Protein backbone atom coordinates (compact mmCIF):
# COMPACT_ATOMS: atom_id res chain seq x y z
CA UNK A 1 0.00 0.00 0.00
CA UNK A 2 1.37 3.39 -1.00
CA UNK A 3 1.63 6.04 1.71
CA UNK A 4 -0.84 8.91 1.60
CA UNK A 5 0.43 12.48 1.88
CA UNK A 6 -1.79 15.45 2.71
CA UNK A 7 -0.77 18.94 1.52
CA UNK A 8 -2.96 21.86 2.66
CA UNK A 9 -2.91 24.74 0.15
CA UNK A 10 -4.27 28.26 -0.20
CA UNK A 11 -3.53 31.42 -2.21
CA UNK A 12 -0.45 32.40 -0.22
CA UNK A 13 3.15 32.81 -1.25
CA UNK A 14 3.91 30.15 1.36
CA UNK A 15 1.87 27.62 -0.61
CA UNK A 16 3.77 28.52 -3.79
CA UNK A 17 7.08 27.92 -2.02
CA UNK A 18 5.78 24.63 -0.61
CA UNK A 19 4.71 23.40 -4.05
CA UNK A 20 8.05 24.41 -5.57
CA UNK A 21 9.85 22.52 -2.79
CA UNK A 22 7.72 19.43 -3.50
CA UNK A 23 8.55 19.66 -7.20
CA UNK A 24 12.27 20.08 -6.46
CA UNK A 25 12.14 16.96 -4.26
CA UNK A 26 9.59 15.01 -6.36
CA UNK A 27 11.67 11.82 -6.32
CA UNK A 28 11.06 11.71 -2.55
CA UNK A 29 7.30 11.88 -3.07
CA UNK A 30 6.56 9.04 -5.52
CA UNK A 31 3.08 8.40 -4.12
CA UNK A 32 -0.21 10.18 -4.54
CA UNK A 33 -0.52 13.61 -2.94
CA UNK A 34 -3.83 15.02 -1.75
CA UNK A 35 -4.05 18.80 -2.02
CA UNK A 36 -6.51 20.11 0.57
CA UNK A 37 -8.02 23.57 0.37
CA UNK A 38 -10.22 24.62 3.28
CA UNK A 39 -12.60 27.51 2.71
CA UNK A 40 -12.71 29.34 6.01
CA UNK A 41 -16.42 29.64 6.78
CA UNK A 42 -15.66 32.19 9.52
CA UNK A 43 -14.69 34.59 6.73
CA UNK A 44 -17.98 33.98 4.88
CA UNK A 45 -20.38 35.00 7.64
CA UNK A 46 -21.39 38.59 8.10
CA UNK A 47 -24.19 39.75 10.37
CA UNK A 48 -25.54 42.35 7.96
CA UNK A 49 -25.76 40.12 4.84
CA UNK A 50 -29.03 38.29 4.08
CA UNK A 51 -28.93 34.48 3.93
CA UNK A 52 -29.43 34.31 0.16
CA UNK A 53 -26.34 36.45 -0.36
CA UNK A 54 -24.31 34.32 2.06
CA UNK A 55 -25.26 31.29 -0.06
CA UNK A 56 -24.12 33.16 -3.18
CA UNK A 57 -20.81 34.10 -1.50
CA UNK A 58 -20.33 30.49 -0.40
CA UNK A 59 -20.93 29.23 -3.96
CA UNK A 60 -18.47 31.78 -5.35
CA UNK A 61 -15.88 30.68 -2.74
CA UNK A 62 -16.45 27.03 -3.72
CA UNK A 63 -15.82 27.78 -7.41
CA UNK A 64 -12.71 29.83 -6.57
CA UNK A 65 -11.47 27.00 -4.33
CA UNK A 66 -11.96 24.43 -7.07
CA UNK A 67 -10.04 26.65 -9.50
CA UNK A 68 -7.22 27.09 -6.98
CA UNK A 69 -6.98 23.33 -6.49
CA UNK A 70 -6.97 22.70 -10.23
CA UNK A 71 -4.20 25.28 -10.77
CA UNK A 72 -2.03 23.71 -8.05
CA UNK A 73 -2.87 20.17 -9.21
CA UNK A 74 -1.89 21.01 -12.80
CA UNK A 75 1.43 22.49 -11.63
CA UNK A 76 2.37 19.32 -9.74
CA UNK A 77 0.99 16.99 -12.41
CA UNK A 78 3.09 18.85 -14.97
CA UNK A 79 6.13 17.87 -12.90
CA UNK A 80 5.07 14.21 -13.11
CA UNK A 81 3.44 13.93 -9.70
CA UNK A 82 0.22 12.02 -8.97
CA UNK A 83 -2.15 14.53 -7.36
CA UNK A 84 -5.79 14.76 -6.33
CA UNK A 85 -7.63 17.81 -5.02
CA UNK A 86 -10.00 18.02 -2.09
CA UNK A 87 -12.16 20.98 -1.08
CA UNK A 88 -13.65 21.39 2.41
CA UNK A 89 -15.51 24.09 4.31
CA UNK A 90 -14.80 25.04 7.93
CA UNK A 91 -11.97 26.42 10.03
CA UNK A 92 -8.59 25.36 8.60
CA UNK A 93 -7.30 24.96 12.17
CA UNK A 94 -9.97 22.33 12.82
CA UNK A 95 -10.47 20.71 9.40
CA UNK A 96 -6.82 19.97 8.55
CA UNK A 97 -6.07 18.03 11.78
CA UNK A 98 -9.44 16.23 11.62
CA UNK A 99 -8.78 14.95 8.10
CA UNK A 100 -5.13 14.08 8.85
CA UNK A 101 -6.14 12.15 11.98
CA UNK A 102 -9.36 10.50 10.78
CA UNK A 103 -7.99 9.24 7.47
CA UNK A 104 -4.92 7.07 6.87
CA UNK A 105 -2.39 9.80 6.03
CA UNK A 106 1.23 8.95 6.78
CA UNK A 107 2.58 12.49 6.29
CA UNK A 108 1.31 16.06 6.27
CA UNK A 109 3.33 18.63 4.32
CA UNK A 110 2.52 22.24 5.18
CA UNK A 111 4.17 25.59 4.55
CA UNK A 112 4.94 27.91 7.42
CA UNK A 113 4.80 31.67 7.20
CA UNK A 114 7.73 33.42 8.78
CA UNK A 115 6.18 36.84 9.22
CA UNK A 116 6.51 37.30 12.97
CA UNK A 117 3.19 39.13 13.01
CA UNK A 118 1.74 39.95 16.42
CA UNK A 119 -1.41 37.93 15.61
CA UNK A 120 0.69 34.80 15.10
CA UNK A 121 2.58 35.40 18.33
CA UNK A 122 -0.66 35.84 20.32
CA UNK A 123 -2.88 33.25 18.64
CA UNK A 124 -0.48 31.01 16.74
CA UNK A 125 -0.41 30.24 13.03
CA UNK A 126 -2.48 27.55 11.32
CA UNK A 127 0.68 25.52 10.64
CA UNK A 128 1.71 25.71 14.30
CA UNK A 129 -1.75 24.63 15.43
CA UNK A 130 -1.79 21.75 12.94
CA UNK A 131 1.70 20.66 13.99
CA UNK A 132 0.50 20.18 17.58
CA UNK A 133 -2.84 18.53 16.75
CA UNK A 134 -2.06 15.78 14.23
CA UNK A 135 -0.86 12.28 14.97
CA UNK A 136 1.02 11.68 11.71
CA UNK A 137 4.48 13.14 11.00
CA UNK A 138 4.52 16.75 9.74
CA UNK A 139 6.99 18.25 7.29
CA UNK A 140 7.14 22.03 7.69
CA UNK A 141 8.44 23.88 4.66
What does this structure look like?
This protein has helices at 13-24, 51-78, 92-102, 118-123, 126-131; strands at 5-8, 33-40, 83-90, 107-110, 138-140. With 141 residues, the chain is an alpha/beta fold. The two termini are 26 Å apart.
Produce a short descriptive summary.
With 141 residues, this protein is an alpha/beta fold. It has five helices and five strands, in the order E-H-E-H-E-H-E-H-H-E. The protein has helices at residues 13-24, 51-78, 92-102, 118-123, 126-131; strands spanning 5-8, 33-40, 83-90, 107-110, 138-140.
Topology:
Blueprint: E1 5-8, H1 13-24, E2 33-40, H2 51-78, E3 83-90, H3 92-102, E4 107-110, H4 118-123, H5 126-131, E5 138-140
Parallel strand pairs: 1-2, 1-4, 2-3, 4-5
Strands, count:
5
The outline comes out as globular
How confident is the prediction overall: mean pLDDT? 88
Distance between the termini: 26 Å
**What does the largest sheet look like?**
5 strands, parallel
Beta-strand percentage range: 15-25%
Sheet with the most strands: spatial strand order: 3-2-1-4-5
Low-confidence sequence ranges: none
Count of DSSP helices? 5
Structural class: alpha/beta
Percent of residues in helices: 40-55%
Helix-strand topology string = EHEHEHEHHE
Taking all Cα atoms into account, the compactness measure Rg is: 16 Å
Offer a few descriptive terms:
about 140 residues, alpha/beta, 5-stranded parallel beta sheet, about 20% strand, globular
Amino acid sequence: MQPKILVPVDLSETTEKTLQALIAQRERFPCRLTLLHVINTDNLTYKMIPDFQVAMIREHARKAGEQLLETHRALLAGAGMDVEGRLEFGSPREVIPRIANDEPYQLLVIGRKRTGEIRDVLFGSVSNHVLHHVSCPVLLI
